[in-house]
Amino acid sequence: MNNTASIQTGRCQCGNIKYSFDITSLISAHNCHCKDCQRSTGSGKATILFVAKKNITMEGQLKFYEVKGSSGSHVRRGFCENCGSGVISYAKEIPHIYYIKAGTLEDSSWLKIDSNFFTDSAHDWNSPDDSIKSYQGNPSMISNIKTLLKSF
Ligand SMILES: [Zn+2]
Ligand SMILES: [Zn+2]
Q1: Residue 55 lies in a domain
Q2: Ligand closest in space to the Cα of 18
Q3: Residue 142 falls within a domain, yes or no?
Q4: Structural domain total, the chain
Q5: What is the pLDDT of residue 145?
């Protein structure tokens, strides 16, 4: 971690959307294998970083597409209207926590994944990392005290 900058930045393909946050404000990081993430990313999973909205500086206007998530909450997926990159999403029910798509980070070499979500719908061609904690479905973020404490 010695060479890791404290301010992390990321962007969409075309650069219309940019964001930055302090690495110390990262709450946790997860691989989500739910059907919605598979569809919206076009791959086996989405790797997402939980960061409180207030700790993220945004540049550019995301367009949001809302779906009723696999767990019943409403997930709003933010993407760049110009290039289509998915950058940030959040649950309408917990709007103060943003989920940053790890692939949009300029440098993600420092990133460690805490757990897997929705391993029930993971595919053999993109199987969950079994060296970390796994949840068959949604880990119920409302009851996750660490997440809540770091988000206010
Ligand atoms: Zn873009
Ligand atoms: Zn998901």
Answers
A1: yes
A2: 1
A3: yes
A4: 1
A5: 56
- Domain at 102, CATH number: 3.90.1590.10
Which ligand has the minimum distance to the alpha carbon of residue 19? Answer: 1
Q: Which two tokens stand for residue 82?
A: 């110009």
The separation between CA 139 and the C-alpha centre of its own chain, rounded to angstroms, equals 14
Closest ligand relative to 41 C-alpha: 2
Classify 65 in phi/psi space as left (phi over 0), alpha (psi -120 to 50) or beta. Answer: beta
Residue 2 lies in a domain: no
Tell me how far apart the alpha carbons of residues 20 and 58 are, in angstroms, rounded to a whole number: 7
pLDDT in tens, 23-40: 999 999 999 999 999 999
Tokens of 12: 């969409």
Ligand 1 mean position, distance from CA 132 (Å): 32
